[in-house]
Amino acid sequence: MPVTLQELARRTGLSVSTVSRVLRGKENVSAEAAETVQSALRLLGLAGAHAGGAPMIAVVVPRVRYFDLDAWKPLRRELFLHLFEAGFVGVTVTAEERPDPGRFRDFDLLGALVLGEEGKTAGAALEAAGVPVLRIAVRPPAGPGSILLDFDAGIDTAVRHLSQLGHRRIGMAVALGPDAGPRAAAFRRSAARRLHIEATRAQAPVEQAGPGVPAGRQAADALLAAGCTAIVSCGPALTLGAMQSAQLAGLSMPDQLSLLAIGEVPEPEVLSPAVSQVTFDWTEVATQAIDALTALAGRDASGPLSGGAARRGPQPLLQVAPDLLLRSSAAPIRQR
C-alpha cells in the first residue's frame, strides 16, 4: 500500500507538517513526536528508511469525480512503492484550481511528479515555489520536462488488432474532457488507415461519456445502436459500462461483441470475459519518472545531491508506448 505523509499523520495522530519535519530531520520537533513517527514506520516495515532528512517528492494526482474510477491508481501505487524503495518520502497533492505556491515552500520538496492534464495548475504553482517538476502526460506536451504516455499508439494498436480479427464496424467510447477530441481524431486516423475507409463520424463512431459506469453504458448503447461489432473503451468506467450494455442487450462477449480497453481496468483477469487491454508497464513508467525527476533535480536516485544543492539540468522528454495484453474479450467477428 502506498504510504503518504497523510497516512503517517493519521496513524500517529500528529499533523502533516510535524510528520514532515520529523522525516526531514528538523530540530524543532519533540523526541516523543520523532519516536512516534519512527514507530509507525517500523510497523509499516519502513524502519530506518526515511529518518534524518529523507528527501520528499510530491505526486500531484487528479481529482476522482463522483461515480468515476481512478485511472491513475496503478501508476500511483508503483510510484509510491518505488519512491520508498529509493529512500524518498512521497507526498500526495490533489490537483486544485488555484493552489497557493506558499504552501509548497514549507515542505522543502526535492521535486514533483504531476499526473495528467488536470495537475497543470498545481505544477505551475510548484515551479513558482522553485520545485523541479516532471509531468506525466497523455497528450503531446507543450514543452520538455514530460513523459508522454502515447495513447495515440495505443488506440492504433487496438484498431489494428480488431481489424485483423475481421471487424469492420468499430466504435470508440471516450470520457468527456480535454482529451476527448484528440483521442477521437487519433481513432479516426487509425480507422482510415487500418480499415481503408474515409472514417467519417458515421463510419467510425465515437461516443463521449461523463463520469461513472452508467454513462459508460449509455455510450456503449449508442455504439451498439450504430451497428458496432467491436468497441474500444478509453477508461475503466467506460469498459465496465460497455460490459453492462452488452449484458443488458443479451449479447454474448466476445462471440457477438468484442471489447478492447485502452488503459486500466479494475482486476481485468477476474471479469467475465477477462478484458483484453492496451496498457502501459506501470513499473517501468514509475522507474523512468523517478529517475528523470531526480536527474532534473540534480540528485542521483541512490545518492546525495550533486554539488550539495538541487540544480536544474537538461529536462528529459520520454515517450512510452503501451503493450497489447490479450485475454478473452476480443475475438473474430461473428454474425449476431
Question: Which short descriptors sum up this protein?
Answer:
336 residues, alpha/beta, 6-stranded parallel sheet, 11 helices, elongated
Oligomer: single chain
Distance between the termini: 44 Å
Q: Average pLDDT, to the nearest integer? A: 83
Q: Specify the structural class.
A: alpha/beta
The gross shape turns out to be elongated
Largest sheet: 6 strands, parallel
- Biggest sheet: strand arrangement: 2-1-3-4-5-11
List the helices and strands in order: HHHEHEHEHEEHEHEHEHEEHEE
Q: How many DSSP H or I helices?
A: 11
Task: Give the low-pLDDT segments.
Answer: 300-316
Gyration radius, in Å: 22 Å
How much of the residues is beta strand, in percent? 15-25%
The total strand number stands at 12
Helix content: 25-40%
Question: What does this protein structure show overall?
Answer:
- The chain has 336 residues and is α/β, with parallel strands linked by helices.
- The protein has 11 helices and 12 strands.
- Strand 3, helix 6 and strand 4 form a beta-alpha-beta unit.
- Residues 300-316 have low confidence and may be disordered.
Write the topology of this structure:
Layout: H1 5-12, H2 16-23, H3 31-43, E1 56-61, H4 73-85, E2 89-94, H5 101-105, E3 109-115, H6 120-128, E4 133-137, E5 146-149, H7 151-164, E6 170-175, H8 180-195, E7 206-209, H9 213-225, E8 230-234, H10 236-248, E9 258-262, E10 276-279, H11 282-296, E11 317-320, E12 323-325
Parallel strand pairs: 1-2, 1-3, 3-4, 4-5, 5-11, 6-7, 6-8, 8-9, 9-10
Antiparallel strand pairs: 10-12
Helix pairs in contact: 1-2, 1-3, 4-11, 7-8, 9-10
